[in-house]
């Protein structure tokens, strides 16, 4: 708005803001009056009202408020689900059946809201440094021994709706179910199984029991792995247990050595028995063959004897004599010798030769 004059005073001798003429400001503070703050605010509002179309600022304020509300609503209505997450939208507090996959999504806020859950594999440690520590890890075996079992459970969420709304505290429930399942399986087996002999079978059985129980609760959890980290006797009886373990190892070693010696002796005995059986079979075959040969020879001789008895008899007699005299000492004494000579038979020489032949 143009002023009445350019020297800072109005036509009635007042200043441009309707005040009286001011003199020069004095540093001492005794001359001019300070400006009124209410007047300054009122004049600013008047200038803003005059600058708006129609001379009113209510429309602009309403537009700004509406835009702000729209931005707030859009901020609440648009949400993002990360790749390792799943989202469940609730309409008036009731979950929908659809599961929001990774990406950008929209909902009607405020009547709808979203609950996000991570689907990455998680781990629960039981025993050792876990929250309850020794109270969780001490378990009674089937042979009335106490063992300190530390194990872990790896799980992932497969049904976000069940995980969020069917069980109040799924992780704590899983911890309690895992501890109970381990106690049940360990309580049916001897301590030796959990220490070293059958640890993997125990872990597999515990996994099956946990999964069946969580499925009964409808927790929406899938148990991937149950791993027994450590199994040891309580610290109070660790030394005695080590002695028992060493004794059992010595027993196993002695049994192994005995089995080795037994197998050695049995192998040798079986070899000797097989050799004796083979020699007996060979002797049997030889005797049978000789008997059969003698029988065949006898039959052949008999046939010859039947054809020529005298000749065969004489031949058999001569062959028998030949067989007899072949290995005997013979002395020939002539009966028709010179008269007056007594036949001499060297009996001492015969006895000496006989004794020498027997010693040889």
Automatic annotation (TrEMBL):
Keywords: Coiled coil, Hydrolase, Membrane, Protease, Transmembrane, Transmembrane helix
Biased amino acid composition, Gly residues: 8-33
Regions that span the bilayer: 51-75
Membrane topology, as annotated: Single-pass membrane protein
Main location: membrane
GO cellular component: membrane
Domain Band: 76-245
Family annotation (Pfam families): Band_7, HflK_N
Chain positions covered by the region annotation Disordered: 1-38
Molecular function as annotated in GO: peptidase activity
Highest rank taxon of the organism: Bacteria
GO biological process: proteolysis
Keyword Hydrolase attributed: yes
Ranges in a coiled coil: 244-308
Subcellular location: Membrane
Subunit record text: HflC and HflK may interact to form a multimeric complex.
Family: Belongs to the band 7/mec-2 family. HflK subfamily.
PANTHER family according to UniProt: MODULATOR OF FTSH PROTEASE HFLK, STOMATIN-LIKE PROTEIN 2, MITOCHONDRIAL
NCBIfam families xref list: hflK (TIGR01933)
Known role: HflC and HflK could encode or regulate a protease.
Name of this chain's protein: Protein HflK
Gene: hflK
């Amino acid at each position: 708005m143009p002023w009445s004059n350019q020297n800072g005073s109005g036509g009635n001798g007042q200043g441009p803001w309707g005040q009286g003429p001011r003199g020069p400001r004095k540093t001492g503070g005794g001359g001019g009056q300070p400006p009124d703050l209410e007047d300054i605010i009122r004049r600013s509002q008047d200038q803003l009202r005059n600058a708006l179309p129609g001379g009113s600022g209510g429309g602009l304020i309403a537009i700004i408020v509406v835009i702000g509300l729209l931005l707030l609503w859009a901020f609440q209505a648009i949400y993002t689900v990360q790749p390792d997450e799943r989202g469940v939208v609730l309409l008036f507090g009731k979950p929908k059946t659809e599961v929001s996959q990774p990406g950008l999504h929209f909902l009607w806020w405020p009547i709808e809201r979203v609950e996000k859950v991570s689907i990455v594999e998680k781990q629960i440690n039981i025993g050792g440094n876990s929250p309850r520590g020794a109270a969780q890890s001490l378990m009674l075996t089937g042979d009335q021994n106490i063992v300190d079992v530390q194990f872990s459970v790896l799980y992932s969420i497969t049904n976000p709706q069940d995980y969020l709304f069917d069980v109040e505290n799924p992780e704590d429930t899983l911890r309690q179910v895992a501890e109970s399942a381990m106690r049940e399986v360990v309580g049916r087996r001897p301590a030796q199984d959990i220490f070293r002999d059958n640890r993997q079978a125990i872990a597999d059985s515990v996994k099956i029991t946990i999964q069946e129980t969580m499925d009964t609760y409808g927790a929406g959890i899938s148990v991937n792995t149950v791993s027994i980290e450590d199994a040891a006797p309580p610290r109070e009886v660790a030394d005695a247990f080590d002695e028992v373990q060493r004794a059992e190892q010595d027993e196993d070693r002695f049994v192994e050595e005995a089995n080795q010696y037994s197998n050695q002796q049995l192998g040798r005995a079986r070899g000797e028995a097989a050799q004796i059986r083979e020699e007996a079979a060979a002797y049997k075959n030889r005797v049978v063959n000789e008997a059969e040969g003698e029988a065949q020879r006898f039959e052949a001789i008999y046939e010859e004897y039947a054809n020529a008895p005298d000749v065969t008899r004489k031949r058999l007699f001569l062959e028998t004599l030949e067989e007899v005299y072949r290995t005997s000492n013979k002395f020939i004494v002539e009966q028709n010798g010179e008269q007056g000579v007594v036949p001499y038979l060297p009996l001492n020489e015969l006895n000496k030769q006989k004794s020498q032949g027997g010693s040889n």
